[in-house]
């Protein structure tokens, strides 16, 4: 026994200093992973072994778990903040204790030391920031997951001085990205093993695209592509690049004075949020269905509104941060448009043909994920009568049927991951403004327009589609009108939309069942 203890002690004497030494000289990549895994385990254990008797006790459980999660994300910084930003958009499922705390990650991430930022600029541009720019403010105006932004001025070829935004990659990111993604992979594998739900099919695609995001040369290319895709929309603006100042770690664009969509109350006072959401939904649909272009990170800190400088009396949406974008294949673009057309015309034969070709075994569940509400072949898609029983049935069916839906995950188009992420963030933003626009209606219209069916006359499918759109628009208008009248006459009445109904029912279900979640049987 003593011999084994001595061996163990000798091993510890070597490995512990080696661990901390490696961690110290490599931007805390090991300790950050340990903290993340420990936090995930602690939160999971708290839910598993706690037994709250009242909603107040359950709210306290959510609050302390959310505090632990956000504390870990802020401590670890980097890609962990990006993971948290994705969670913040799930306000239709996560309890408010989570979503309120996660909002801090959208635009208040920790900043990096000034000397490190200045060193990166000097290394990449070949001269100091104060030599490269006419003026450079060393105090960052914003900090995100992997970068921070400084305001500066440059002198153009014609001698004029231009205000610019200088986006600089945080210095620790290159060393941390592989380790952070590895921790993400471990958590996905662990959840898949524990709960029997397929998650790891998406790991490779997420890893590949997040590696691209930390290369600002790729973001510059996607920014130019975005300007090209949406060049015909005067209501949407993409800031121009200054390529002479752009590198793998530095990105310089024109400075835009505008209000971020994260400032909900100010936007409501000074602008027309309904028109802004209409612009965003239409642009997203056009980019996806007509051009195969996906902006997968349109959270409210990346979207701004300003008075249009070229059109008096008009407003203009400004879209930022093209780091997490994707150009889909032509085949996916066409087939995904067919999916939306089939959903709205309830053409189950076409829907099943497309999704089965993607290795998806449950067409109705897949359609539900696209609409983000229960879909059934037995009920028109324009119906707004969603019952509590249907919501619960849909939620209960997810775990039971998700693996059947993903029956052949090797064939599932990886574009689905980022299309879903972008659409989810837009849904969340729309919800934060009271769901003023009908996103499903807009997406369906753009999908059918991209298929260019109008040239051959009016088919039966086209007539069914147009009728469905009309009914859906009328249903949405009627709901908004009734709620508006009630809110006007009864000041205590809170305007409710279909999004509200679904959110409250989903949250109620989660509140009632989250603390009873058990480890599922493994195949």
TrEMBL record:
Its recorded name reads ABC1 atypical kinase-like domain-containing protein
Q: Kindly give the SUPFAM superfamilies that the UniProt entry links to this protein.
A: Protein kinase-like (PK-like)
Q: Which family does it belong to?
A: Belongs to the protein kinase superfamily. ADCK protein kinase family.
Record-annotated ABC1 atypical kinase-like domain positions: 105-354
Pfam families (alphabetical) = ABC1 (PF03109)
Read off the lineage from the record.
Eukaryota, Discoba, Euglenozoa, Kinetoplastea, Metakinetoplastina
The record ties this protein, via InterPro entries, to:
ABC1_dom (IPR004147), ADCK1_dom (IPR045307), Kinase-like_dom_sf (IPR011009), Mito_struct-func_regulator (IPR051130)
Species: Neobodo designis (Flagellated protozoan)
């Amino acid at each position: 026994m003593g011999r084994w203890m001595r061996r163990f002690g000798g091993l510890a004497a070597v490995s512990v200093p080696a661990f901390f030494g490696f961690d110290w000289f490599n931007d805390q990549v090991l300790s950050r992973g340990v903290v993340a895994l420990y936090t995930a385990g602690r939160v999971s254990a708290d839910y598993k072994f706690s037994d709250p008797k009242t909603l107040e006790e359950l709210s306290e459980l959510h609050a302390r778990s959310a505090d632990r999660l956000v504390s870990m994300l802020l401590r670890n910084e980097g890609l962990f903040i990006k993971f948290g930003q994705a969670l913040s958009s799930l306000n239709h499922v996560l309890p408010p204790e989570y979503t309120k705390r996660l909002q801090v990650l959208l635009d208040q991430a920790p900043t990096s030391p000034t000397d490190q930022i200045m060193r990166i600029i000097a290394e990449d541009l070949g001269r100091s920031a104060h030599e490269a720019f006419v003026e450079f403010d060393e105090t960052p105006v914003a900090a995100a997951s992997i970068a921070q932004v400084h305001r500066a001025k440059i002198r153009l070829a014609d001698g004029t001085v231009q205000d610019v935004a200088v986006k600089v990659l945080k210095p620790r990111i290159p060393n941390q990205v592989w380790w952070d993604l590895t921790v993400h992979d471990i958590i996905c594998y662990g959840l898949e093993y524990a709960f029997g739900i397929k998650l790891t099919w998406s790991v490779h695609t997420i890893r590949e695209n997040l590696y691209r995001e930390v290369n600002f040369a790729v973001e510059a290319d996607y920014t130019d592509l975005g300007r090209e895709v949406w060049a015909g929309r005067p209501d949407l603006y993409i800031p121009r690049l200054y390529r002479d100042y752009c590198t793998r770690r530095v990105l310089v664009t024109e400075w835009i004075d505008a209000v971020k969509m994260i400032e909900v109350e100010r936007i409501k006072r000074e602008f027309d949020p309904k028109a802004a959401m209409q612009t965003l939904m239409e642009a997203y649909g056009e980019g996806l269905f007509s051009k195969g272009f996906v902006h997968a990170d349109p959270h409210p800190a990346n979207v701004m509104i300003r008075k249009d400088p070229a059109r008096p009396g008009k407003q203009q949406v400004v879209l930022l941060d093209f780091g997490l974008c994707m150009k889909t294949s032509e085949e996916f673009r066409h087939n995904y448009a067919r999916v939306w057309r089939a959903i709205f015309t309830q053409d189950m034969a076409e829907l099943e043909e497309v999704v089965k070709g993607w290795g998806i075994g449950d067409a109705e569940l897949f359609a539900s994920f696209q609409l983000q509400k229960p879909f059934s072949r037995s009920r028109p898609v324009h119906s707004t009568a969603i019952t509590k029983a249907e919501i619960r049935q849909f939620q209960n069916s997810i775990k039971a049927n998700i693996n059947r839906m993903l029956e052949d995950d090797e064939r599932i188009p990886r574009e689905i991951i980022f299309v879903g992420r972008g659409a989810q963030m837009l849904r969340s933003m729309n919800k934060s403004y009271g769901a003023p626009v009908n996103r499903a209606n807009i997406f369906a219209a753009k999908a059918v327009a991209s298929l260019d069916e109008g040239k051959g006359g009016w088919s039966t499918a086209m007539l069914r589609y147009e009728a469905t759109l009309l009914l859906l628009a009328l249903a949405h208008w009627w709901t908004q009108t009734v709620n508006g009248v009630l809110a006007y006459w009864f000041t205590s009445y809170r305007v409710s939309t279909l999004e509200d109904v679904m959110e409250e029912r989903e949250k109620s279900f989660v509140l009632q069942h989250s603390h009873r979640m058990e480890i599922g049987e493994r195949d």
